[in-house]
User: What shape does this take?
Amino acid sequence: MKRWCLAAFAATAFSTGAPAQSSAPGPLAAPCGTLQFERGEHDVVASCGGVAFDRFGADALVHFDEPDAAGNAVVRLLVQTDAGPALYDLRRRPPLVQRAGRRLAVRRVFWQGDAVVMQGPQGWFRLRNGTLTQLQSSTTVYH
Assistant: This one.
């Protein structure tokens, strides 16, 4: 019992705080309206408030969400597409779409101000203002 309590404490105390990966097509509450992903014949269409704002190819829908301060709505999303990750800023109308421009499998995501930091098999990357940068080893801790 003592070992189990210690393991439970360690798991909660040292959790990364990274948002979990999701495959939910929606509807998701967002500042731009209700976010929905709909599979078409050959692609996926993202719409917010009933208005389509992006279309992408993907075998499976995978996204990482950043909730608002109250936890009631999704304000940003990193979506895995066949062409690479795409960042959606849902606080804007229409939502801002920034593509990484490089195929990259994403395992974990950390939201850092106006940037998103991603970990994948190829290392750590930052997507900010539409620019993808591979990060070098440093003492910075992302959480």
Observations:
- The chain has a mean pLDDT of 81.
- The chain is about 10% helix and 50% strand.
- The radius of gyration is 16 Å.
